[in-house]
Amino acid sequence: MPGVIVLDHPLVQHKLTLLRRKDTSTAAFRQLARELSMLMAYELTRGLPLHTVTIETPLETTEAPLLAGKKLCLVSILRAGNGMLDGMLDLLPSARVGHIGLYRDPATLQPVQYYLKMPEDVAERFCIVLDPMLATGGSIAAAISRLKQADVMQLCVACLLAAPEGVAHLSEAHPDVPIYAAGLDRELDSHGYIRPGLGDAGDRLYGTK
Predict the structure, then answer these.
(1) Is the pLDDT of residue 106 over 80?
(2) CA distance 34 to 100
(3) Buried b / exposed e across 86-125, counting CB within 10 Å, b at 16+?
(4) In terms of CB atoms within 10 Å, which end of the chain has fewer, N or C?
């Protein structure tokens, strides 16, 4: 589907299948989400710029590559986005972290921001927006709009599962922002759940249902 990059690495697909199972425990779900997120971080940082520095090995002086520019910023959409943070930070320990809290207004069905905390220099960083489920796409689209208002120019989205409806909405709202997903599922049901899906990611991460 245009607008989304599905990561087809065998380990990603294997762990996603384990994550989907309804009998996967809260502890196992949390660990699998962490492992999947670390694998995704490896894939979606392939294009980061490098520059060459001079270093001393135990044997000689040599030229070697290092990441160039400011480090990344991982932006978690509360609360479920926090389930992807640890895995990303395992691979990207120097990344800064931002949080944005959104809820859906029951009358208008529009996302409403209730919390926002970002690094002061977020506009200078490449931001990875984290939310396990790209369902309708409303919350992620709103989060990206808020980051663009803060002059963030380099963005991508990382999610464990995406629905075609959410991909279409987000691609229309922000066609310049790539979407990375471990899986692209069939559809949303009448309650807004991704099918076949894995249930409510927040509830399964934190054992709240």
Answers:
(1) no
(2) 20
(3) ebbbeebeebbbbbbbbeeeeeeeebeeeeeebbeebbeb
(4) C
Q: Domains in the chain, ordered, with CATH? A: 4-206 (3.40.50.2020)
Contact 71, 119 (CB under 8 A): no
Specify the length of the chain in residues.
209
Query: Which pLDDT band holds residue 109 (cuts at 50, 70, 90)?
Result: low
CA 110/CA 82 separation, integer angstroms: 22
Half-sphere exposure of 199 (CA within 13 A, CB side): 20
What's the rounded Cα separation, in Å, for the pair 201 and 135?
A: 11
